[in-house]
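G., the chain you wanted modeled:
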Amino acid sequence: MKYFTIVTKSYLGLALTLRRSLMDNSNIQESDFYIFILDGDKKNTQFIVNVNTLIENHLYEALSFKYDITEFATSVKPIIFKHLLSIDDDITYLDPDIYVFQKLYDSNYEREYSDKLIHLTPHFLEIDLNKKDYNRYLGSGAYNLGFCRIRKNNKTEKFLEWWQSMCSTMCYRDRDDHLFTDQKWFDLIFCFFKSQEINIIRDYTFNVAPWNHHERKIVFEKEKFHVQTRDKLETIRFYHFSGFDYKNLSDARLENDKFEISSDINLIQLTKFYGEKLNDQSASKYLNKTYIFNKDKNQNQISLLQRRLFRVITENIELRDQKKINKVKNELEPLSLGINKHQERYNPEKNIKANQKKDLIIKLLFKVLLMIVGVKRYMDFLKYIRYISKFENQVFLTKTYDRKF
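Predicted structure as tokens:
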């Protein structure tokens, strides 16, 4: 079996920490783990590979421009699965912000599930009537693709072709279009496979993460990290440090702005442990490396508006036509986030007060509009605002729109 992860140069330290945890705690060889780098600028080594060596240049250029960093990283996952399945028949993907605490697949697991074609972990396993954010997973998907294991088979090869085609065109984080990177597509998995071909892992020690803390309490006991479920205490198999801020590594302190950890002594110990492991791999020296696809050729930051307009303009353009692709990029340059040297320094308090005043004025104008046009026309106006505010529908800002209409 082979394992892999996908990173930018800035997250190489996380990938090295993941590899070390697999070697120390899951008994894999260094040669079994591959790191694929999106924006690599050094020659490939045997097990650290630049993504651009696997993908045709025109596709690499298009994906890196139309997708943000997360979308780009996840869009190439099926391509890498296909590549590694030509080397080995069984491949596991892990997000770089994962740490493995014990053998990933023990003998009992392999005996029971090794014949399965695809292995997935749901975000959670229990119903909690006090949990109020289940709707967010209708947008992001039932399964967390920070972990995925795929075995070579005629059906999985065909599935990977389909998944790659979806990810090459629709790997956006766009809930209006029911898209969430590579992940949401797996909600359709049982349309393509029989239930006995898929292993939905119902083991609480797999993919422990902030989104399932409500059903898996972290307990540090006898020098090991465990997960406490309703009836037993088990050693964590792997923890997914998703959403954490890695900037405070000098004092081995991690923070998560989406989930509360400061009041839980066990979580504090867990994050401190991981911070120390990251420091062991000198992760902080990589974190400040610049992601080159955040800026255009003039060193202006590429805006989300540019990326989404590129999406809609190139829908009917053959991506092999590099001249046309470059022409579209050039036309979108005026929509970049240029650096304004005369812009005022950001003042949080001043901006909050200014925004509150603007908000009151806008709401007052909306009230006046309602009084003038009536409820029906007002609702039609809101529907139009919702439509036109979608970035892809701002194509009228471009020369492409002028030429077409």
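DSSP finds 15 helices and 16 strands in the chain.

Shout if anything looks off.
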